[in-house]
Amino acid sequence: MRRTGAVEANAGGASVEIMAAKMGNSIDVNRKLQKTYMPVNAAAVREADLARRIGRGKLALEQNEFKKLKLSQRES
């Protein structure tokens, strides 16, 4: 199996144990092989970036709600 096949299988959710069985090697325990054949998954990176944008928006809304609250001045 070539690197593109490993990337596609990884994107499809295949575990490293399944990849090791398919490739006939020890990729499941060898970090160097994992970095070579299973590089950063671009789809996962995009999904994480989208989640960050959504979270950033939610946090901004939350901060805006706090800014709208005005505490009245107490008279002493």
Can you describe this structure in just a few lines?
The chain is mainly α and 76 residues long.
What can you see in these coordinates?
The protein has 76 residues and is an all-alpha fold. It folds into two domains: 1-38; 41-75. Helix content is 67%, strand content 0%. It has four helices and no strands. It has helices spanning 3-11, 16-23, 31-37, 42-68. The chain starts with a helix and ends in an 8-residue tail after the last helix.
Task: Describe the secondary structure blueprint for this structure.
Blueprint: H1 3-11, H2 16-23, H3 31-37, H4 42-68
In percent, how helical is the residue content? 55-70%
- What's the count of strands? 0
> How many domains would you count in the coordinates?
2
The assigned structural class equals mainly alpha
DSSP strand (E) fraction?
under 5%
Radius of gyration: 23 Å
